[in-house]
Write a structure and sequence with these properties.
Number of helices: 11
CATH superfamily of one domain: Nitrogenase molybdenum iron protein domain
Strand order of the largest sheet: 2-1-3-4
Structural class: alpha/beta
Largest sheet: 4 strands, parallel
CATH topology of one domain: Rossmann fold
Strand content: 5-15%
CATH class of one domain: Alpha Beta
Distance between the termini: 36 Å
CATH architecture of one domain: 3-Layer(aba) Sandwich
Shape: globular
Length: 347
């Protein structure tokens, strides 16, 4: 977990808009004024942190609370993390249920800024049908399917002690099981709604910087609009591609850009696949309804062999939270373009 802000103001959406010359980067750094020391804000996950950084620009830095490959649903806060949360005037979160440990730690509700409350945000309900809900009601032992105790690989958290007493459900996971899917940042139009809320709360809390925040917001909205159009154009050639993804995090990306996810490895409670679910997924594979099998960097990929032992499918890595990209203002665009680049491998 990172408790130090990571600034990356000079990095644009590299994946979407091409690489920036070294001279432009240097000029951007040299032109950066001193960052104000009166701004103290924090953000939960990398994509949200990136949007906050876009609005802050050169006016301040946001602390990233959930870093690396850890899952935001179950984190262990160190004393230094709690100090950062206590110090922050504003804490930007997806929703109270998305990172409940963080939400509960911020005692003053006036300091919490929940992206789920952004005006104009498009919300989709969680999918609980057969292909996304429970494939069976008695899950096999995790080891039968190549999982470690939490389904994470060595880059995640494998020790039960790290996660005890953090609100696990009966399956060993503590995903938010509310009515709506909370991965709404994966639609760039939703990111625009989030940026509007971020700017509004920052300007209200730090009125001396309001003009700069408003200018930064307008530039961020232009960049996000261009990113949205660029992704839409790129995915046209594989809209009908049948996909199996690791867990149901991509509804917003699918709806916004017309993808075709057939099912998920984990069910809608993020529980590991049992025999019935494995058979259901194999049926899709054997009948040619799927072309690509996607895993995520923070999870164990061994189960892919159980699902597709003959390796009929192209295997790709999709990163819906952007753990592979440097934190900062450019992270969001790189993450979104990274999803497109992964999908292109399926064609």
């Amino acid at each position: 977990m990172s408790t130090q802000p990571q600034k990356n103001n000079s990095r644009p959406f590299l994946g979407a808009f091409g690489k920036t010359s070294l001279a432009a980067v240097v000029m951007g750094v040299l032109a950066t004024p001193a960052i104000a020391n009166d701004i103290h804000v924090a953000a939960s996950i990398r994509p949200l942190h990136s949007l906050v950084e876009m609005v802050l620009g050169d006016q301040g830095e946001a602390v990233l609370l959930v870093d690396g490959n850890m899952t935001p649903h179950n984190i262990t806060l160190r004393p230094s993390d709690r100090l950062q949360l206590a110090k922050a005037d504003l804490v930007f979160l997806i929703d109270d249920n998305f990172a409940p440990i963080l939400a509960k730690t911020v005692a003053d509700p006036s300091r919490k800024v929940l992206m789920a409350e952004a005006d104009g945000l498009m919300k989709h309900k969680r999918r609980t049908s057969e292909y996304f809900g429970h494939g069976d009601h008695g899950h096999d032992d995790h080891d039968d399917h190549g999982h470690d105790d939490h389904g994470h690989n060595d880059h995640g958290h494998n020790d039960h002690d790290d996660h005890d007493d953090h609100g696990h459900d009966d399956h060993g996971h503590s995903h938010a099981y509310g009515e709506f899917d909370l991965h709404f940042w994966l639609d760039a139009k939703n990111a625009m709604a989030m940026v509007n809320l971020i700017e509004s709360r920052l300007s209200a809390r730090y009125p001396n910087h309001a003009d700069a925040f408003a200018q930064n917001k307008e530039q961020a909205l232009k960049n996000l609009q261009a990113l949205d159009a660029n992704i839409s154009d790129q995915v046209k050639s594989f809209k009908n591609l049948g996909l199996i993804v690791y867990h149901d995090a991509y509804t917003y990306f699918e709806e916004a850009y017309g993808l075709n996810v057939k099912t998920t490895v984990l069910d809608h409670h993020d529980a590991s696949s049992g025999v019935n679910r494995i058979q259901m997924i194999r049926h899709l594979v054997d009948h040619g309804e799927v072309s690509c099998l996607a895993h995520e960097p923070q999870f164990n990929a061994k189960i892919l062999t159980t699902i597709d032992p003959g390796q009929k499918l192209t295997r790709i890595e999709m990163d819906p939270i952007g753990v592979a990209y440097p934190a900062g203002a450019g992270q969001y665009g790189e993450m979104m373009q990274g999803l497109v680049n992964s999908l292109m491998q399926c064609r």
